[in-house]
Amino acid sequence: MPAENGSESKDRQTSFDISRRQVLLTLGGLGAAICAGAATWGGLELMVSARQTVDSWNKAVCRFCGTGCGVMVGMKDGRVVDVRGDELAHNKGVICIKGSMLPELTRIQGRLKSPKIRRAGKLVDASWDEAMGLVAARFSQCIDQFGPDSVEFYGSGQLFTEESYTANKLFKAGIRTNNVDGNPRLCMASAVTGYVSTFGKDEPPGCYADADHADCYFMIGANPYECHPPIFERIRQRKRANPNTVIICVDPRRTKTAEHSDIHLAVIPGTDLLLLNSMAFVIFDDGLQDQNFIDKHVRFSDGERDVDQAAFQQFLRSYTPEKVEQELGVSAGDIRRVAYLFAKSPATMSLWTMGINQRTQGTFLNSALNGLHLITGQIGRPGATPFSLTGQPNACGGVRDTGALSHTLPGGRLVANPEHRQEMEKIWKVPEGTLSAKPGFDAVNLFRAMEDGRVKAVLIMCTNPGTSLPAAGRYHAAMEKCFTVVSDPLEDSETQRHAQVVLPAALWIEKQGVTGQGERRYQLTPKLLDPPGQARSDLQILVDLAARLGHDKLITARTPQAVWDEWREVSSHSLYNFKGITYDRLAKERGLQWPCPTEDHPGTARRYVEGDDPFVTKGAGIEFYGNHDKKAVVYLRPYVPSPEKRSVEYPLYLTTGRVLEQFHTGTMTDRIAELHRATGDATFDLNPGDAYRLRVRTGDRIEVKSKYGSVIGQARTTEASLPGVIFAAFYDAKLLVNRSVADNYDPTSKEPEYKVTAVSVRKVTV
Amino acid sequence: MNIDFLQIVMVLGTLTCVLGVIFCVRTARTRFDQVEAPNKEVNLGIVRVPPLTFAKLLAFASLIVLPAGAVFLANYHTFEGVHEVRGCASCHIMLPMVNDMQDPMSGTLAARHYKNRWIAENQCYHCHSDYGLGGNLEAKMTGFRHLARYTTRTYHEPIQARVRFDNKNCLNCHAGTPRFEAVQSHKTAHERLISNQMICLNCHGQPHPTSVQRTPGSNDYARLTEKMK
């Protein structure tokens, strides 16, 4: 380029000259661009805020099963629009299909909106004053005329703790009867007697988080895939992360849980104590026991007196795998294999529920399971624990812990123990001798007492015994004979058909209260909605009843928080001490596990373990402080066959249970369209082979008959039912399978045996 | 040597930018009124053009064609590049999600999909498929907002998703498979799942580390925010 040219170089200079105008223009342009960007950003921020689908997320607890999942409830314009699993709660954000449908629960059809009194055979609307006046008058009349033991409270593992506590106090310290029981008797009484006999104190020593650490899961008489889905999901996550993990399932059905297990032992219904004793035999025979742990922490007993280890081993000789395999239906090889895995896995977690508890040998089975963990030292380490799963959201916290059962008092105390009664009289500030020494009626015997007139009036709260009791036909008649009062959020339950007075109750987040799920964790459900019509919380009903019966000086705590504070204080006089679990903490934290004596205590994940449990002596490591010698007890528990044995007349076993999409007697879940569609009406499920032999096909109507009653329903053939076993879910009042379920119960826990009934099956041709 | 498509795009983009700058300088130094000798045509290989035409063509290329090309290639690279996991990991705020996904001991949904090779590549994008060049307007708007927040550091940890996760991301792969169809609840809740009224995550668990784990000072924070190797 010719650079020497003067004019050109000048020109070139000019071409790069930037005038003031240009600078301003450039800056202006830049400024405008920045402004446009910022305005877009600002606009987007506003848009995102405006497009939120919920106004607020509120921490609550699922209404349904005993897993007690933390949920976040999304509210918009005063309505529940969304429910999600709470990622910070123990369930780590996992809930199930039932929990996902919780928004529909708040708009459910068939809510009771007004009290009703039966007049000329029909339930008609009445005012609260009329209804409660009538209830109080009839209760007073019965108490005056026939004594306090002629009335009863039949509660529920679905009431809030404040409600169960208040009912228990009103009846035991006010009316002076121990006739306080409830549906937890039907589902976990055997777990209570099992834990109490072994550890001296009720409630599981472990926690759900143990499922994150176990290497062997021994699931017996439980179907968590369907009944506690978030817990099974947790187990499967552990398995996916650590493929060496072994899942063992013992169940007479090929359940969804069994399908997803590594080993399925299909025992014959009613025989599994043979398996547990045989496993114990193999453990000692092959030297798989943890002798060091046994020497330090275990005592043996035959139920009457202490015995030595040799006596225990001698007792087990009748249970060699070869001796039991025939009756049990599991091969000797499988028993040995499972015994080894149980004893020698780095950490073994047992999980059981109704298959073990709802048995005539429920207590024995529970203590045998606890025993297996004790002889192998599979306890007190992360992942090693005997865990009884629970079925209802507040059976543990509300009923077991508050002692709202006919033989118990708060904080693990017993009615039959005079010292315990005195302690409670002092704490409740009632005169000595107020608490009756006579244990009240347990669930089954209560209804029998209603049948023969010993109990004249009963208050049934938040449960549906009309569908859930065994031999249901018999007890429907019993309810007719009695002055039956039912408090329920929903109308038309099987129980209400036999009631004289029906009271409309608040449901789930229409009232505030604490629930305690299966791992000793207390969680708060806030009040987010108003109940429909005239419905009231069960606590309000109880407080009203107390006042009308003249016990307003006893029942001074009348709001959920006041009751909770009283109960917290009461607990501090026991090894259940959770004085540190205040409402404030519950509102902020994702539930707390007791013991938790002070407000700065983080709660106890693993009980009896030093560092976790505040009651363990320093330096002890593990200490079973519930028993006087600080040792846990392993019992010699002989197998006794169930009274329901297959025969020529009744050649099949009937067993009952839950299904994934339905909770309990289905009064809530079966009203939610999606859940109802998922399950349809309940059927009798039988093995295709059995069906072929009986000339029955899916869709045929069959009669299932036992000694206790007969039920006609639709048959469905499925491989989930193994030969010789029929299954029916109990949620469906239309089928009402409990009409044919055996009326036997465990002599210690008084829990009925729903799982074993000998039946015959016949095709109904009409 | 393993050269993927995006790398070629990146090289092309860089070349375009360099070429654009050279052309611009050249154009700036050209005095169009003094371009002479119309008979000295410039040979462009297939056609011979007069110098003025060449200068104008050069100006057009440097001011319009090349910048537009560069913008297109850069956008393409950005939008396609973010499909890759390392694209996501390039923002500090996304490290916990990525680190957790690649942790074989983690049980989160992301980690399980990753370690079991249920998704072979672009694992983030597979479940968050609303961004990228073909993504929807909402994702673009949210993305712009996130970019603004991130570059101006006007966010605080732990970050929380404000928009609802679209079930379609799950259903695209899972719906219709025998395992999916075998679950009765999937059939009955079909409408709710399609319309996002019920989220898949409710039953199938935690997708990423919890907000507590992602809070600075938590036990897991240091591990989760480690720079990717």
CATH classification class of the largest domain in chain A: Alpha Beta
Q: So, CATH architecture of the largest domain in chain A?
A: 3-Layer(aba) Sandwich
Question: What percentage of amino acids of chain B are in beta strands?
Answer: under 5%
**Largest interface chains and counts:** A-B, 43 and 35 residues
Average pLDDT of chain A: 94
Structural class of chain B: mainly alpha
Main β-sheet, spatial strand arrangement of chain A: 5-4-19-18-17-6-7
Distance between the termini of chain B: 21 Å
Structure summary, number of beta strands of chain B: 2
Instruction: Return Rg of chain B in Å.
Output: 25 Å
Oligomer: heterodimer
Helix content of chain A: 25-40%
Alpha-carbon distance between the two ends of chain A: 111 Å
Explain what you see.
The complex is a heterodimer of chains A (766) and B (229). With 766 residues, chain A is an alpha/beta fold. Chain A folds into 5 domains: 6-50; 56-105, N-terminal domain of TfIIb, CATH 2.20.25; 116-186 and 394-546, Rossmann fold (3-Layer(aba) Sandwich), CATH 3.40.50; 189-389, Dimethylsulfoxide Reductase, domain 2 (3-Layer(aba) Sandwich), CATH 3.40.228.10; 652-763, Barwin-like endoglucanases (Beta Barrel). In chain A, strand 15 (408-409) and strand 16 form a beta hairpin. The model of chain B has no long low-confidence stretch (mean pLDDT 85). Chain B is mainly alpha-helical. Chain B has a two-stranded antiparallel sheet with strand order 1-2. Chain A binds chain B through residues 1, 8, 11-12, 15-16, 37, 40-41, 44-45, 47-48, 52-53, 82-85, 87-88, 92-97, 99-101, 229, 233, 237-238, 240-241, 660-661, 674-675, 677-679, and chain B through 28-29, 31, 104-107, 112, 116, 141-142, 144-145, 148, 162-164, 184-185, 187-189, 192, 197-199, 201-206, 210-212.
